[in-house]
Structure to design on (322 residues):
């Protein structure tokens, strides 16, 4: 039997165990450019064991709901932020660690205007844009060495919205 | 008399003296996620004298063309990347340094799907979204100390497209 996970709205509180929501909600720390621009300051915990932060561009095919989740991965050496470059939604699947493998999977749908920063070594699914351009800026670790661990599930799960 | 500057298309070659264009053009360094996603790897030269990279969100009012350019600024302690979170255009004004003040100003219009990374200490105008959500992720230096120098022109310039 395929287990089914219902995706939740992405909120900072619900996502806190896994990382930060990157959006312009709440009160800005300051206003710049003669008051024309709000700066929501330093919203992501960037965390790299070595190497340094870099900016890459990801261009992905769109995914469809219900989504068939077969795989989670994690990056032991650094955090990873996904910033959508269109006003569009994407599916974020994550899990706590349970002795070296993913524990109970949770799913979130980021709405237009939201990105995420995944903390270092958090289990997460691959990039799943649901609409829009499929174009993302990714801020993650640039450095040598293996920074990818994958876990394939014995039985795929179904994620619904 | 007000001097007039005509904005050019934003290309990596024309922008090279000032920074990098962040887009998914050219050949991706690798394909991930079972071939569904192209990774254009490490596209920005992040450069901080101290402190560290952080991600902030800017939410700006839109600007209008022709644009009245009164001010350039620079950040002596770090590079600054602007990543639009909508498929939209923005105006980028920059200038080489000429003995501590801006030299000849150049203007570029970033098209949908393009961001920029400004090298450390490059003179540039404030964020000028021309359409879209006015929402940007900004990757710049998080740290103590003064990191802003402004130059107000005696006579404003007009930037046209």
């Amino acid at each position: 039997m395929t287990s089914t996970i219902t995706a939740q709205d992405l909120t900072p509180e619900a996502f806190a165990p896994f990382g930060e929501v990157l959006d312009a909600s709440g009160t800005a720390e300051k206003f710049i450019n003669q008051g024309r621009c709000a700066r929501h300051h330093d919203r992501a915990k960037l965390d790299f064991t070595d190497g340094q932060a870099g900016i890459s561009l990801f261009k992905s095919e769109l995914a469809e709901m219900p989504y068939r989740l077969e795989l989670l991965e994690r990056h032991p050496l650094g955090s990873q932020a996904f910033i959508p470059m269109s006003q569009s939604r994407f599916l974020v699947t994550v899990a706590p660690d349970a002795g070296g493998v993913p524990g109970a999977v949770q799913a979130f749908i980021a709405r237009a205007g939201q990105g995420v920063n995944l903390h270092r070594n958090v289990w997460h699914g691959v990039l799943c844009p649901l609409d829009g351009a499929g174009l993302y800026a990714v801020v993650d670790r640039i450095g040598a060495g293996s920074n990818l661990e994958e876990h394939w599930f014995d039985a795929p799960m179904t994620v619904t919205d």
Q: What stands out?
A: Helices of chain B lie at 12-15. Chain B touches chain A at residues 22-24, 28, 32-33, 36-44, 46, 52-61, 81, 83-87, 113, 115, 117, 126-127, 132-133, 135, 137-139, 142 (CB under 8 Å). Residues 74 and 97 of chain B are 10 Å apart (CA to CA). Chain B is about 0% helix and 50% strand.
